[in-house]
Design goal:
This protein is α+β, with helices and mostly antiparallel strands and about 110 residues long. The chain has helices at about 10-25, 40-55, 70-90, 90-100, 100-105, and strands spanning about 5, 30, 60, 65-70. It has a two-stranded parallel sheet with strand order 1-2. A two-stranded antiparallel ribbon has the order 3-4.
């Protein structure tokens, strides 16, 4: 079984494309038709929305507990790593980044 979803860039077609992808995998195809009546900006927005629209559907589920979008967890972990790096190396970063004399010396 395979399916082709007419993708318009709206929430409903994005949802259907995601469900079809989850159920059928590579046998599901979402298409957007380009025609003279379709403005270039609408086509661009549909493509951009398609990239963004599928992000919330990739969710972190552990033992049937939905912990939210995976992207949120990835960004949170990156934030913690960056904050830890800045906290641990603050003195060195401040010296190398904000010291005017050192900056002049290094060029």
């Amino acid at each position: 079984t395979s399916v082709i979803i007419a993708y318009s860039g709206g929430v409903d077609s994005a949802f259907m494309a995601n469900v079809a992808n989850d159920v059928l995998g590579v046998k599901a195809l979402a298409i957007t038709a380009k025609s003279p009546s379709l403005a270039k900006s609408e086509l661009r927005d549909a493509v951009l929305l398609g990239e963004i629209a599928f992000a919330p559907f990739n969710r972190l589920i552990i033992n049937n507990l939905d912990l939210g979008p995976i992207g949120l967890w990835v960004m949170g972990i990156i934030l913690i790593i960056n904050a830890t790096f800045v906290k641990v190396f603050y003195k060195e970063l401040k010296l190398s980044t904000f010291d005017q004399n050192l900056a002049k010396t290094l060029g």
